[in-house]
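Title: Request for sanity check on TauD/TfdA family dioxygenase prediction

Description:
We are preparing a figure and want to confirm that the structure record we downloaded matches what your pipeline produces today. Could someone re-run it with the sequence below and paste the raw C-alpha cells into this thread? We only need the C-alpha cell string, no images.
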Amino acid sequence: MTAREQVEILDGGAALALTGAAGRLRFHAVWLRDNAWDAATRAPGNGQRLITLGEIPADCRITHAALSGGALMLQFAHETAPIAYDLAWLNENAYDRPAGHSPGWTAPWIETWDAGLMAAVPTGDFRALQSDPAALRAWLFAMRRYGFGKITHGPVRDGALFDVAALFGYVRETNYGRHFEVRTEVNPTNLAYTGLGLQAHTDNPYRDPVPTLQILYCLESSAAGGENMVVDGFRAAERLRAENPRGFDLLARYCARFEYAGSDGICLRSRRPMIELAPDGEMIGIRFNNRSAAAITDVPYADMADYYAAYRRLGELIDDPAGEVSFRLDPGESFVVDNTRVLHARKAYSGTGTRWFQGCYADKDGLLSTLAAMEQMKGAAE
C-alpha cells in the first residue's frame, strides 16, 4: 500500500471509492459482494461461485472498509466476517472507466493486418508445437493476435489434421462429417470441391453458431495453382467504417440471411449481420459468403439501396489485393483460421496433377482456453 491509497464509503454504504495509482475507482457494494473470493463464496480450485445473487441482499451495504497490506478489508451489514479483496485484482477488473469506444473497436490483443503481413506469416513447426510448451504458447498467441496461423513439418497421412486440433482443443462435427475431403469431384455438392477459384469468405455462415475455427491440411499438392489466401475481415470492416460510417452501421445493424441445402436432408439457415458488434460496439464477428447468401429481407426499403452499396463496397475491400496474404501449402503443412474474423480463399488450380486436402472445424474457446491456461502457468512460474 502506498501513501496515496485510500478508501471512502459512499452513499450510505451502497458503494465505495478506492483511490490509488490507477486514480479514483468506484465500486458498488453488491458488485463487491458478488465478486468476493473468500472460501464461502468461491470453490477452491475452480473458483466457481458457491452462492447466488439472490442470497445477497438487494440493499447490500458496506459498514466498514480499511486498507491493509495490499488488500481491501470490507465488512458487509448482513454478515459478521470481514472479506479481503486483492487490490491488484480490483484495479484489473475496475468498471468505473470512461467508455470511450466508437462502434467497431477491437480487443487490445487483436492486431488487424493487410498484405504487409505476407513477410511474417505466423508459422509454427508441428514437431515443436507438440513437444515445446513455449513454442505452442507463442503460436497460439499469434493465432489470437492475427486470427490465423500456418503449421509446417506435420506428418503426411490420412487424418493428421486431428493431431493439429488436439494441440488446443477438439473437433466440431457437422453434416460434412468429423472432417471433409477437398478434392476435385464430378457434380460436387459444394464449390469447394472443384478447381475453381473461390472468393474470400467465412465458412458456414448458415450455421448458428458458426464453427469458429477451420483447419485445412495438405496431403497432396502437385497441381498448378491453388494457393491459399487469407484476408482480415476486421481490417476490411475498419476500412469501410473509415470511408462510409453509415454503410458500416447498416451492415452491423441489419441481419443478412444465409442458407445451405446442398445435400439430402440438410437445410441450414441463419440470420445474422455481416458485421457483428457486441452491445458495447466491440467488433466480434464477420459473416461474408456470397455463395451461401439468401435473399436479404430484414432491411427496410428506405435503407436497402445504401445497404447494398455498403455490401458491394465491403466485397471490393475484401477482394483488394492490398489486403491479401497468400501462401502455398505443401504436403504436411496446414493452416488454422479464425472463422469469425479472417476470410479465406483459394486461387484456381489446373486439372493436371493431384490435390488432396482435408479439413475440419474446431471451436475457438478451446484455443483461447489453452492459451490462457499456459499464460497463467507462465505467470505463476515467473
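Thanks, this matches our download. Residues 115 and 322 are 5 Å apart (CA to CA).
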